[in-house]
Amino acid sequence: MKTKTWMLLALLVLAVAFLPLPDFWITQLNYIGLYSLTGLGLVLLTGVAGLTSFGQAAFVGIGAYATAWLTLNLGMSPWLTLLIGLGITALSALVVGGITLRMSGHYLPLATIAWGLSLYYLMGNLDALGKYDGLLGVPGLLVLGWDVGQGRGFFVLTWVILLLAAAALLMLLDSRPGRAMRSLKNGTQMAEAMGIPTLRYKIVIFVIAALLASVSGWLFAHFQRSVNPSPFGLKMGIEYLFMTVVGGVGHVWGAITGAFLTKLLEDKLQVLLPQLIGTSGSYEIIVFGIVLVLMLKFLPDGLWSMVARFLPQPQRPRNWDAAPPLAERSKPQAGELVLEVHNIRKAFGGLVAVNDISFQIQAGQIVGLIGPNGAGKSTTFNLITGVLGLTGGQVLFRQQPVAGLRSREIAQRGMSRTFQHVKMIPDMTVLENVALGGHLRGGKGVVAAMTGMNRDEEKQLFKEAERQLQRIGMGEHLHELAGNLAMGPQRLMEIARALCSDPALLLLDEPAAGLRHKEKKALAAVLRQLQSEGMSILLVEHDMDLVMDVCDHLVVMEFGTLLTQGTPAEIQQSPAVRAAYLGTEH
Length: 586
Ligand code: ADP
Ligand code: MG
Prior knowledge:
- The structure is a single chain.
- The chain is an alpha/beta fold.
- It folds into three domains: 3-234, no CATH class; 331-414 and 503-586, 3-Layer(aba) Sandwich (Rossmann fold), CATH 3.40.50; 425-501, no CATH class.
- The protein contains 23 helices and 14 strands.
- It has helices spanning 3-18, 23-48, 56-74, 78-100, 107-125, 151-173, 176-182, 189-193, 198-224, 234-247, 252-277, 284-298, 303-308, 377-384, 407-412, 430-436, 446-450, 455-471, 487-499, 517-532, 544-550, 568-573, 575-582; strands at 135-136, 142-143, 146-147, 226-227, 337-348, 351-362, 366-370, 392-397, 400-401, 415-417, 505-509, 536-540, 553-558, 561-566.
- Helix 2 packs across helix 10 (234-247) and helix 2 (23-48) crosses helix 11 (252-277).
- The longest helix has 27 residues, at 198-224.
- The protein is elongated.
- The protein starts with a helix and ends with a helix.
- Bound molecules: adenosine-5'-diphosphate (ADP) and magnesium ion.
- Magnesium ion binds at residues 377-378, 420.
């Protein structure tokens, strides 16, 4: 977003503060601001990274209780207790996240429920925290002697913090670490292959989300002038998630939209429902449940996605021409052995999918790995790239053993790959997807991204991504959304992403699958051009015309074993290969 838009939003906040709105509305806006802050964390956690948490209210509680206890018992300044509260929150989030984020599937949401419940009962049972009565008499906030503890002052403080947090998050999401975070949603295999330490990023996301909740709790405690466990329990944890999903969990503005709607709806329902039903109680929860189910069915991207449709899509300014190029690794000399595969073996239980396969790749060679379906090609590929562990054998990459290393460690040494089934971030542009491949060539982290200290590096990364896209003839598609591309360009984009990591060896898993004749021709041209530039390539491919056309050497597998290897001409003459493909007896 442009600076001008931010200025406008800040002015809007000030205008609201000075408008003759009834106090009731200012109070509503204050709550909406507080909820939105926690919701922002959920956008990052759930919308961006696909991690569901019902435990955010507990982190709000940590921020609130920390400041309440410290100001009341030690007479500390609220500004100091904010920092201490953030410290305690970060520490708890590191511990909770470090344990739970290793879990997959439903275990993470379940673990966050357990965490939310345990903290609630802890707050409710500790004498020092006043048990279920909580702590009373928390001081209000002062900024330079101005009372911002209530009403309009509190509104300005909360919404300025909210806007700053939203701006920081938007800057983060559009950055090297942000793209890495956005790559976490659909499994970690592709991200790891690009050198992204996925667990570490998940923990960082969990901590950021907890810190946002903690700030909200700090504000809340000084606004309410008291704390007790009930606003930090599981019910509120669920409500935070509800709000954000309804507003649009994939968008920063979705969090605020959701908080608005939920707060307004809640107030209306609390008046309306008892009149309808005849008794009072928290019946609005039932309506929320129904709304959530309907939303997930008919508008899963939330209400903000409907608003966003009418907003202009900002185009990334092309401002990187003057950026210095990224450093490149030293490449293998012509004839040097880039890859040596020695008797590698993989057993899945009783099935030996790869049975003592050996072959080599020299610098500048294109080696094809072929064989019928189920022969073990993809498994071989995954053994070399570290996705799967070897049952036996050794792999040397540029004379160094790489067996046992993680795929991102192997990526770091200069192996880069594409996938049999294209793995990309559909809602990122082609340019951004390719820049993901350059992850290991940048170094700016979360803080640099949030404060705009990463601009020079971003230019370098985008310049490199554009260069790689042009290298494979996709210079036209920079700003298109990757999900809108046809299969052919998607596969080429994956090659550009792999190239963006400056590899010494490129591994392509069935790059021609699903391509039309003309696209295959274009792919062959790209491969030959890469070879002429000195690139070494391992190509797993079904399309015999393509393989025979571009490969220098072929390795033929059948039922996990090595059938034969040789030049394309030799392979074409081989009776064993013909038999394997035509299914006849030798
Ligand atoms: P290709 O890529 O040549 O078509 P694969 O390497 O995908 O073949 O598969 C080789 C064999 O290993 C197949 O019989 C397949 O069913 C089996 N296989 C592959 N991955 C696994 C796995 N994760 N667990 C069990 N069996 C597997
Ligand atoms: Mg395969």
